[in-house]
Design a protein that fits this description.
Elements (H helix, E strand, L loop, with lengths): L19 H9 L24 E6 L7 E6 L5 E5 L4 E4 L7 E2 L9 E7 L5 E6 L6 E5 L7 E5 L7 E6 L5 E8 L2 E7 L7 E2 L22 E4 L3 E5 L7 E5 L7 E4 L9 E8 L5 E7 L10 E4 L7 E2 L10 E4 L7 E5 L2 E5 L7 E4 L5 E4 L5 E4 L5 E6 L1
Antiparallel strand pairs: 1-28, 2-3, 3-4, 4-5, 6-7, 7-8, 8-9, 10-11, 11-12, 12-13, 14-15, 15-16, 16-17, 18-19, 19-20, 20-21, 22-23, 23-24, 24-25, 26-27, 27-28
Length: about 375
């Protein structure tokens, strides 16, 4: 999406040792109060008092805003953000290596998809040639630009991968329809997919490049696209890697360029969570989350949603019911699949991601990066 505040930074309309159940219980026990290091001090059932879990901030050494995040493991993570900045850690966030692509200082990097500690793809957003995709195979020592947009009407927001070879990237509507790029070689080359299977966009509709989660996939073929900025917020679903799409209305605030679905997460091809609202500070977002149990054909508002706009969401690995949502005013946790949420921290984050080993990371403004870990 193209405007957020004065700049066109979100899109056209304005990227442990405990079980999942124990982790969820620990987080839900936390008080919703702010702390200096954005820490949620909690006690897990059966754990000794004081040995709970918290967001622990890691010193990134920069003031860049990181809306792109890829959690590889508890040790390894990538972040991508403003001023063309890409950082990578391989020691749990104790140190960060600046692996920004050469000459990228003028780019807004909003999404990063990492296959491991050496191979990753980053997406730069913007009008025309500002939208680009770059790939590294050596941990960021060198980068190759694999796509540069040449259509002035296109504005790319998010990228996702089904596996190490197959992936998609999405642009805001061009000539009335969302544009989809496809790769079959891990992001080394891209082609525009036919638009015949894409439904018409609503007037003013677009995606939000807020957390790298406006385009997400689950399994080998299913992918979902989040929208906002129009009369209705929607989630579009494709079961054939982006060739054909089916839209569904989402019960999240809409009707304004600053409102819609900002982030999606699916734990399988059936169960998903959508978060969003109104990103403007001080604006109410009374229905900031919704859930689906049928692959996105229908969406139900959360019975007790987060209290404010949320831009990022992630499922805890190996859990059928636990997830995190983050935004500028805090972190919320659900342990019933997204139906009810509880605020557990007041620190600002834009996006969140969890790795298979339950290494959960969050990132956001002013260089903020954190990992969920024992206190």
């Amino acid at each position: 999406m193209r405007a957020m505040g004065k700049s066109k930074s979100m899109g056209r309309a304005v990227l442990v040792g405990l079980s999942g159940a124990a982790l969820a219980s620990a987080l839900l026990a936390a008080p919703a109060t702010a702390r200096t290091a954005s820490a949620v001090h909690t006690d897990a059932p059966g754990a000794a008092p004081g040995k709970g879990l918290n967001w622990r901030l890691k010193d990134s050494g920069t003031d860049a805003r990181f809306r792109g995040l890829a959690a590889v493991s508890r040790d390894t993570a990538w972040v991508a953000g403003s001023k063309g900045t890409v950082l990578r850690t391989s020691d749990g966030g104790r140190t960060w290596r600046d692996v920004s692509p050469p000459g990228s200082a003028g780019l807004e990097l909003r999404d990063v998809e990492a296959f491991d500690g050496r191979r990753a793809v980053v997406l730069a957003i913007g009008e025309g040639e500002a939208s680009r995709i770059l790939r590294t195979d050596d941990g960021g020592t060198t980068w190759t630009e694999s796509f540069r947009n040449t259509d002035a009407k296109a504005f790319y927001d998010c990228v996702t991968f089904f596996d190490r070879r197959h992936g998609l990237a999405m642009s805001d509507p061009v000539d009335g329809k969302y544009r989809i790029l496809s790769t079959a070689d891990g992001g080394r080359s891209w082609k525009v997919l036919p638009s015949a299977g894409m439904p018409a966009a609503q007037e003013g509709e677009a995606g939000f490049a807020a957390s790298g989660q406006c385009l997400v996939s689950s399994g080998p073929r299913d992918v979902w696209l989040a929208t906002g900025g129009a009369a209705r917020a929607r989630v579009l679903h494709s079961a054939d890697r982006g060739l054909t799409w089916t839209p569904a209305d989402a019960p999240i605030p809409a009707g304004d360029p600053a409102r819609g679905v900002f982030g999606l997460a699916f734990r399988d091809r059936t169960h998903g969570i959508a978060v969003g609202g109104d990103y403007r500070a001080g604006q109410a977002s009374p229905e900031a989350a919704a859930v689906t149990g049928d692959g996105g054909r229908t969406w139900t508002p959360a019975g007790r949603p987060p209290p404010a706009y949320r831009s990022g969401v992630a499922w805890f690995p190996h859990s059928r019911a636990t997830a995190l949502a983050v935004g500028p005013t805090g972190t919320d946790v659900t342990r019933d699949g997204g139906r009810t949420w509880r605020t557990v921290d007041a620190g600002s984050f834009d996006t969140v991601d969890c790795a298979a080993d339950r290494g959960c990371w969050a990132s956001g403004e002013k260089g903020r990066i954190a990992r969920l870990e024992p206190r």
